[in-house]
Amino acid sequence: MSRSARLALGVALLIAPSELALTQPKKDVPRSYGVGHAVTPEQVAGWDIDIRPDGQGAPPGRGSVKEGEKVYMDKCAACHGEFGESAGRWPQVAQGKGTLASHDPVKTVGSYFPYLSSVFDYIRRAMPFGDSQSLSNDELYAVTAYVLNLNDIVDDKFVLSKETWGRVKMPNQAGFFDDDREMSEKAFWNPNPCMNDCRGPVKIIGRAGAIDVTPDEKTQKRGVE
Amino acid sequence: MADPSNTRGATRRRFLAGAAGLAAAGATETQAENSKNLPPNVADWTRQLGEGVGVRAYGNPSKFEKNVIRRTVPWLTATPESSVSFTPLHQLDGIITPNGLCFERHHGGIAEIDPEDYRLMLHGLVDKPLIFTLDDLKRFPSVNEIYFLECAANSGMEWRGAQLNGCQYTHGMVHCVQYTGVTLKLLLEQAGLRPGAQWIMAEGGDSAAMNRSIPLGKALDDCLVAYRMNGEMLRPEQGYPARLVVPGWEGNVWIKWLRRIKVGDQPWFTREETSKYTDLLENGKARQFTFVMDAKSVITSPSPQAPVKQKGFNIISGLAWSGRGKIKRVDVSLDGGRNWRNARIDGLVLDKACVRFYFDFEWNGEELLLQSRAMDDTGYVQPSKDALRKIRGLNSIYHNNGIQTWALKPDGEVENVEVG
Q1: Which ipTM did the prediction report?
Q2: Do A188 and B387 count as a contact with CB atoms less than 8 A apart?
Q3: Which of A26, A86, B61, B279 is most solvent-facing, going by the fewest CB within 10 Å?
Q4: CA distance B40 to chain A (A)
Q5: Angle at B72 between CA B66 and CA B75, to 5 degrees
């Protein structure tokens, strides 16, 4: 609190302490509005589906690669392909090893995902596409195990559960680092950017018209009549 | 040709009407005139009564504005439920995006939530885990703030060169509206943070149940749980009835249809923040938690979907924004970045919001290479695409804020080009 504010407060206290309580709520002590209700453990249990890398939040249950193959073929292969290679333009979930530094990186569970939880948590909340949160815990463990197996991360006999969670090592776990733009892109901070003669002759080296992939506006749905 | 001093106050309608002269071939929006409505004749709408009040209980734009719509790029995604539609930036002015034109990005379609059945759960490392109804959220003291929201993948298709012909497609994953809501800080205070609280996880109630980790510092700084946009309740496609507002940060963390916030002591490393919204560099390593959207700008007119219709006096119009603070300055180049001039910023300049800029020029039909360059109040200057690629390579997908080039051709048409 500034000196003048403290002085003002002192004066106010002398004059009308009861009014002060109305006009000057105490700083740093958050007000409780009494709005909202205590959430019950039962309510939380139904929605608390997130899982962390260390396995916190993983549900009870178990599933083998073999069991997972059946779940995958029934519910996943139509989009992701029988071997995780993708059918059409749906996400590829397997292979792609060694491609991240290439001109055509293929990001899959095996080549890119850093943690088992990143896969498991996602399948649990969002898959199968169009039938979210429909798999049993055992099916979840099984199908995740199968996707790991497609990526050669676990063997054919592997059974995934809370107990075996820590045994899964994802190949690209060390492939990430925290945002460093303020250091690595420091040069983009410049109080006096060039205004005149900033570069040599300018040449057009690429044209969107030549690629011709822009949608035709006439074929797009129009607004309300 | 019009005298610049007179044209300043001209409406867009008059501007377009006066444009009938040039390049009819390229003019996509020109309507055939009906001389019956033009002086000295008296127009139909002057002699007849129009519709009464209440006929348009919720008003729509004029039927003559039917082409002002969000558009999609169908080949981009496997399915429309997990896809994107783009804001028609070239057809808008000022800084506020109309609610029905704000770009959409869904991962499991639009959840249609009955507000009576809406609940927001707040738990984890808190003293009192709480659950709120929508009415509860509205009872708290509210705040009103204008912020831009940009998808991290905006301009993502342009990393390898000019690809899409239109700022709607190259830059249309941004919008700017006023939000009404309760601060996340106030909600967290109601539950009481426990020692060790460092991160929150926000989760949507849609069929993707999108979840993202956000550092507690940001949550306590300026995040909102918003239920209104531009005065009315959120549109379903923007997260009705409540969404997270994370000013200046990539759109993916602005969880829509917000159903749950959990407080924890470390990030969750969810699928969205690992396999998706990470920036893969040339060496195969990827940056993670690149939340802030760097300063960026784009000329919205002229642009490929908004060609120039007459020689003489013309105005360049554009948008600029920065996730790091306020836009301090915008420069415009007519020669592909060799020489720059200050643009005129008009209207509100707000923290982490869009600003509108203008630049007047005389055009004699010569080919021009139009660019804009934004600076924010941290001193960050929007880089060239080449400067970005030099550091990040071609595989990043996200956070492409490089300077855009439009080639204005002698016939008034405009093309998205890459300069070297």
Answers
A1: 0.90
A2: yes
A3: A26
A4: 31
A5: 145
Distance from C-alpha of A188 to C-alpha of A180, rounded to nearest angstrom: 13
Burial group, residue A76, by CB count within 10 angstroms (0-12, 13-18, 19+): buried
pTM of the model: 0.90
Query: Closest approach of chain A CAs to the CA of B160, in angstroms?
Result: 10
* Same domain (yes/no): B272, B309: no
Please indicate whether, in this complex, the C-beta atoms of B132 and A35 are within 8 angstroms of each other.
yes
The whole domain housing B115 covers 104-287
Which residues of chain A neighbour B208 with C-beta distances below 8 Å?
Answer: 125-126, 132
Task: Please indicate whether, in this complex, the C-beta atoms of B381 and A190 are within 8 angstroms of each other.
Answer: yes
Percent of chain A scoring above 90 in pLDDT: 80
Nearest chain B CA: its distance from A9 CA (Å): 25
Q: What is the CATH number of the domain that holds B374?
A: 2.60.40.650
Strand partners, B121: B131, B260
Using the predicted structure, report yes or no on whether residue A92 has a pLDDT greater than 90.
yes
Residues of B in contact with A103 (CB under 8 A): 394-395
| Partner-chain residue, chosen from B163, B416, B418, that has the shortest CB–CB distance to A205 | B418
pLDDT, averaged per 10 consecutive residues of chain B (420 residues), comes to 35 37 42 90 96 96 97 93 97 98 98 98 98 98 98 96 97 98 98 98 98 98 98 98 98 98 98 98 98 98 98 98 98 98 98 98 98 98 97 97 98 97
CB contact under 8 A, A179 and B271: no
Domain A49-175 = CATH 1.10.760.10: yes
Nearest CA in chain A to B285: A175
Alpha-carbon gap: A174 to the closest alpha carbon of chain B (Å): 8
| Domain closes at, from B259, B287, B315 | B287
Would residue B71 count as lying in a domain? no
* Distance in angstroms (rounded) separating the CA atoms of residues A164 and A161: 5
Report yes or no on B189 lying in a domain. yes
Claim to verify: residue B314 and residue B257 sit in the same structural domain: no
Least confident of A5-14, A91-100, B10-19: B10-19
